[in-house]
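Data availability (excerpt). The following record was deposited with the supplementary files.
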Amino acid sequence: MKIGLIATGIWGSIHLEMARELQRLGHVVRIYTEDNRAPSGMRFSRFAEDGLEFWVIHAFRRNPWTWLPDRLFKYWLGRRFFTSLVAIARFIRANRDCDVFVVESDWLGFFVALATRFLPVRWVVGIHDTDYLDAPISYPGRPHSRWRSAVQRWVLRRAAAVRANSPFTRDALLAGGCPPQKIAVVPLHVPQRMLPPPSPPLPEFRALSRRAWRAQLGVPEGALMLATMCRLTPVKHLELAVDTLVELRRRGADAWLVLYGGDRQLPGVGSYAAHLAARARQGGAGERLILAGEVPPPQVREALAAADLHLAPSWADTFNFAVVEAALVGTPSLVSPQVGATPWLGAAARAIAGEDPIIWASAVLSAPTFDEAERLRIADELSVGSVAQQLVALYSGSTP
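Predicted structure:
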C-alpha cells in the first residue's frame, strides 16, 4: 500500500515512529511536513530518510504567491493559512497514486478537505484532542469557537474514516456530530523511549529510581509518594490531586505529592503552580506538595518508577501517555473515567468516578496492584507493531 502522511513537526513524534514501522512492513510512505530547516515556504525540500520519502516546507515562511491573502486573513485563519493550503494541495496532487492519505489532526484535515474538493482521494483523519468539539466536556479554559466547531464537523463528514485514539475520544466525536460508521478506535502506540531499559531488571530499576528521586526531592524512604506527570493546566484537574493529599494528611497518612510538569500562566489566576501550592497550604499540606517542574523525556520513566502511585484526575484526556508509561515501569494509576488509555491498562489503572477527595484518598490507601504478566500484556497490545496492524486495516478500508 502507498500511504501519504500529512503531519506537521514530525521529527521526534510518534507519527514518524509509526511511519517507519509501516515502511518496515513493506508499505511505501510519503510524508508532508513543515520544518524550520527547510529553506523555502514555497518550494519543497525532497529527500529520503530510512526508506521514507519527505516533502518539506519551512514551518514559518510564507509562499510569496500567497503572501497577500495570508496577511489579509491572518486574524481569522492564522498567519499562513494559504501557504499551507497550497503546499498540501500540491503534495496531494503529486502523490495521487497513494492508496490513502493519513492526516494527523482535524485542523490539517481542514486543508485536506478543501484540497480534495478538486483532487478526490481517500483520506483518513486522526483525532487526538477534543478541543472545539461540540461535546459535553467542560473545564476551566476549554477553548470554544462556533466556527471552528462547524469546520470540525465538515472535516469529519468529508473524511473517508476517522481514527479515534480511545473510546473517550470516540464518544466525544459522536457527541460532536461525527457519523458513527466512520469512527474506528485505534490506540496510540508506546514510543520506544517509554519502554523500560533492558537492564537492569525492572525490580532493580525501580529500586534505583526510588532511592535517587526520593533523595533528590526530599521524600523520606517509607513515605507514600504520589505523582502526577502532565502539563500543569486546568484540564488535568490537579486541584483534585492536591485535595486528595490534604485528605490523606487529615487521616494521618505519611503522604507526599509530586507534581511533575512545567507551569502555565492562566488568565485571572496567574501561575497555576502557585495556585495549587496555595490550595495545599490552605488545607494544611503545603509542606508535602512538591512542584518538581519539567522532567526531560528520557528521565520520565525513572520519575514514575520512583512513585508508589500515579494520579490522573483529568477532566478530559483523550489518551494520556503518562498512565501507560507508569504501568510499563510497574507503577499503578488512579484515573478519572475521562482518561482515554484506561481500557488497555487492565489492573494497572483504576477509574475513580466523581470529584470527592475522600473517595480518592480511600482509593489511594487501597491502591491497585498488578503483576509482570499484566505489564507485558500492556506493552504487547500497545506496541508499534500491534497498532500498525490495526492502522493498516483502517487505511485499507477494512475497518470500521
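Summary of structural features: The chain has two domains: 2-189+383-395, 194-381.
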